[in-house]
Amino acid sequence: MKTVEERYPAIVRAFGLVRTLMLIVVGLSLGCGAAAAGPGHPAYLPMTFHAESQSIRTTACLQVVERTYPQSAWWEDTRSTLDAPERALQAVIAAIKRRDRTALYQHSHPTLGRDPKRFDDQAKAFFQQFEALELSAVPRAYEFDGLAVFFAKIRFKQQTFFAPFIFASEDDGSFGFLPYRTDTVTYQLVDDWFNSMWGPAATANPAYCTGEDIKRATHRVSLVPSSGTANWAGPRSSLFLVGASLDTPGRLATLVSRVSAAMRDLKSALAGRGIDDFAARLTPDGARRVKEWFATADQAERGRYQAAITGQQPFFLFDASPLVIVYTKSPVGVRVMYFTFNAGNRLLWTNSSYITVADRVFDKGPLRDAAVLAQPFSSIALK
Q1: Is 243-380 in CATH node 3.40.720?
Q2: Residue 79 neighbours by CB distance under 10 Å
Q3: What is the CA angle 216-378-208, rounded to 5?
Q4: pTM above 0.85, yes or no
Q5: Where exactly are the transmembrane stretches of this chain (predicted)?
Q6: H helices within 109-252, ranges in order?
């Protein structure tokens, strides 16, 4: 039997990333009743780090506003008091069910959701495939950075999957539908968490950051400007981190010592003990890739690689255990390296040749800007 992704690929593309399928018996205990949720509450989502062979739950914490809803079709209840994002969702679902292209276009965001060809492609997908797919619940929503994201549970025969309905704020305070995916980095972080093995798509008891995680934080940063309208006064996300300079490590002194030793060992292995010894300091997939590359590289390429690695001088780290984010300096600028612990509690260089959303978080935008300050990360330090 074909899966949802095989039989209805367009609807999956229309909603963004492929959803992880789950058995229909997996439910969410979110209460009951016909009325929509009340005001949202702050939620602290553990950032997911995609290592080469697995996804890792970190202690870097993204603050957003979360709302939970009953399992009933609350968006169809005209008696409920809905706010702007909820009214927008209600209107979009109604337009899709009526196959009303004009209404769906009118409810789409005027600048972010009305590209003619992309809109038409996605509208056709919605209209055709919602005839076979049942929208059974919209149990959770998240508001941050001018976006409102509703995660809808969609049923296909004996399977269910989650798909996001995404809205962006408009100048008048309303919200416009985004019929195609957004690449906003904070949306990707929320979506990663939601669809992880510890998120609401997979468990009735999703994992959040603890109060202790937030109390330990030394730095707080907003990763993106508001989506939709620049004047949006609604909730903005913040990423909470625990960090320290290698010169003044404070309570991270033990970790700083271990990272410094791991960096020295990494460089000395490459410089003097050979590629096999160097590769042993990387995660298995990274080790395989570097050895394959090394076997085909000429001496000049090998020399440049060695110089690039041995020239790195670590100066700051963030402890998002079991992930450690290390900032280094070299003659060519600032670089970010990731380390994780193996089963023997040894630090290994991770994602040495693998780019993920983490690089958009730590190696671009506000964190990159903060890294190159005369006093690194002083602009985002909690006082």
Answers
A1: no
A2: 6
A3: 30
A4: yes
A5: 12-37
A6: 116-129, 185-194, 211-216
